[in-house]
Fold these 3 entries.
Entry 1:
Amino acid sequence: MKLSAYAKKLGVSYKTAWRWYHDGQIAGYQSSTGTIIVTEEDDEVKPRKVVIYARVSSSENRPNLHSQADKLASYCAAKGYQISKVVKEVGSGVNDNRNQLQKILADTSITVIVVEHKDRLTRFGFNYIETLLEGQGRRIEVINMAESGKEDLLEDLAAIIYSFCARLYGQRKGKRKTEAITKEILGEDDNAVS
């Protein structure tokens, strides 16, 4: 099989497959015309470690979390993937400190992350994450490219506004505390001099 067909079958870019070939991760040879022919068996083409990632914005949507994970598991079974781990997380898509997602992204042994929608992984920066993972020979597989409901988007918008308000009020509160401490120190010094 040509390297380009192999890359397409795996769902990775030709450049990634080419790098794998040159790193010795793919068995094959280069013909006299320059075409790289992959000699690996079909069962070896399957991804090595597949993780399902399901996320909902709030605890109220927890029943959707389980149905989302079940749908992803059915998809993986149909593709012939062996699932290594199912990760379920409750948190806003705009929150970049989701512990479970951080662990998945940090684990370089995971070759495929399967999600229902792009926004289940993250609301912003999906293409950045996808590009970085591809550079490591990993990929994200999105089973439904259509956008999800407006409710989640509105919840995430509210989370963004809440986050910025909390930061703003936190800064104001910190400034007031600093001013109060300064007045107290200056007031004590004034009393000490008198």
Note: The radius of gyration is 25 Å.
Entry 2:
Amino acid sequence: MPNDGQRYELLQGELIVSPSPERAHQRLVKWLMVRLEIAAEAAHSGEAVVGPMDVRLSPNNLVEPDLFYLREEQVDRFNVNYVEGAPAFVIEIVSPSSGTYDRVRKAVLYRDAGVEEYWVVEPNKRRVFVHALGGSTPTPMIVMSGTLTSMVLPTFSISINELFAAADRLCLMES
């Protein structure tokens, strides 16, 4: 990857430049990371990881998820600068420039690489796409209310209302 200060991902061999996320995005990542870390500790298993951290899914696919979870047996995939192979669970927070990549292209990419569960959080639309990627076609479930619990890490459970209330508060702090 170029070392020019830009953020890059490699999707099916295509180099994608990503602008740095906004402060509100990073605050929401932090909000989710705290809960993901608590859930991993409660399960006494695996490791929660916050980006930026490169994940090399294959020679032609290098991504930088916002958050991900590695099962205990996957933790040895850490190298000095990246993780080799698919995490069990990935969470992306949609930014204005990343929506199509996060919702469509990465869902297929993650499925093909062996990610078991993938959440796409869309604060502006107040919904979460949940992809259970075990089948042949990733079919997202759209969640807009209630409580959402990870299939991969059942101790990770969030209230959709709390998630988007936090997103609203964090965005208001930007004004």
Note: The chain is about 30% helix and 30% strand.
Entry 3:
Amino acid sequence: MGLNILIVDDSPIMRSMIKRILNLSGLDIGEMRFAGNGDEGLAVMNAHWVDLVVADLNMPVMDGFEMISRMRGDEVLRNIPVIVVSTEGSGTKIGKLRGMGVTGIVHKPFSPEEILKAVNEVVYEAANEN
């Protein structure tokens, strides 16, 4: 059974780039869904099964911090692993993300290998928990 992934980023180009990297990764991908901000991301998660969220932080309407905070406060969504892909590099904000249970952080600009490493770590960790 493939990994259902939600990519949340306000840039269609960034969503497309991450999708392409994941499609070429050799990972067993189920469905990939997309959202342009945190509010849309939460709506997708409430309507469809998601195994992993790859999200930006700086987005209009609802940013990634708020989306992750709401996920962690929701009984159904709280345990979905999140990988943040962002230009954000502040140690304070990175610490806040870690405290929110963010599994991986990839800084933009990134290489395909950085995305795949973060995703593989999440998949490996989830497999070892079961």
Note: The domain at 3-129 is CATH 3.40.50.2300 (Rossmann fold).
